[in-house]
Specification:
Blueprint (H helix, E strand, L loop, with lengths): L1 H15 L4 H22 L9 H25 L6 H40 L1
Helix pairs in contact: 2-3, 2-4
């Protein structure tokens, strides 16, 4: 149900921003790459728990770096013709991508926990 609502809202927003569709898609692309990069860096598994804060800070810095470079590149290539549509698209898809990554992580952690329970029962 939540995924359907997100998809419906994304399609409606894309249709409503039809005149500035490039700005909409650039916002989507930069948000997805920035959140994915930050997520990948921040939630790396490591043997050293002391590195957790450093990895989180690196994730935030990577997200900001990808966003700045993406916006600069898009402005240079004249892909952003409406800053308002771009900023709304970036904000919306940043929230959506964060929600989807955390949902995926929760699913993977639950699956791993179930596998561990099955392994201990079989032993």
């Amino acid at each position: 149900m939540k995924f359907g609502f997100i998809l419906l809202l994304s399609i409606v927003a894309g249709v409503l921003s039809g005149e500035h569709f490039h700005s909409f898609m650039v916002g989507f692309g930069i948000a997805a790459v920035a959140v994915g990069t930050g997520y990948w860096l921040a939630f790396r598994s490591t043997r050293y728990p002391q590195l957790a804060a450093l990895l989180l800070l690196m994730g935030v810095a990577a997200k900001m770096g990808v966003t700045v470079v993406g916006v600069m590149w898009s402005l240079e290539a004249n892909l952003i013709n409406s800053p308002f549509v771009f900023s709304l698209s970036y904000l919306f898809f940043s929230i959506v991508a964060t929600y989807l990554y955390f949902t995926l992580r929760e699913f993977q952690m639950n699956r791993t926990a179930k596998m561990n329970v099955l392994e201990t029962q079989a032993a």
